[in-house]
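Sequence and fold
=================
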Amino acid sequence: MTLNPFRSFKIIGALAVIFIQHTHAQITLSTAYPIIYSSQDAEHRDLYITTLDGSDKKRLTNFAGGNGYSAWSPDGKRIAFYAKYDDRKTWSIHTVNAEGTNRQRLTQMKDYWDNSPTWSPDGATIAFARAFTDEEGNRQFQIWQMNADGTQQQQIQSLSGGGPYFGPNGQIVYHSQPGPSEIFIANAD
């Protein structure tokens, strides 16, 4: 049996094209621009993404209320963050597509500070911190979770603190409030 070198070359070429197309489909903005941050310009604070070496940055939001505490979704397609309203008296959790489109406000409690969103490992849930002053004038610090579309918002009753973060096994790491902070780990339930 003799091999046709041109046929082998065609097969190798076709496999290379398939590999390149598959590899390109796997690259997301979070891969190309892994760093997401907020920065104040002359007008207001907005979200930006940048390359690891900082040589290329892209502005994602343009909102006068300010944006911050951003987090990439596990699949790299969405970003969760907070934005400020009512002269900075209300902070709300939002999501936006990686390229800055389809901004959605998920929480809307007036005079509450919803902040520090974090995605569950499967991307289905967002946990966040909520701070507010109760009727007696005491500051309250709570941990909440909701579906990634903002539905089924619920307080995790036994947790009090801020800065939640989902670990890879689905547990929540957070810090206590107020006073000297301590770090805690808890199941999401």
Summary: The longest helix spans residues 5-26.
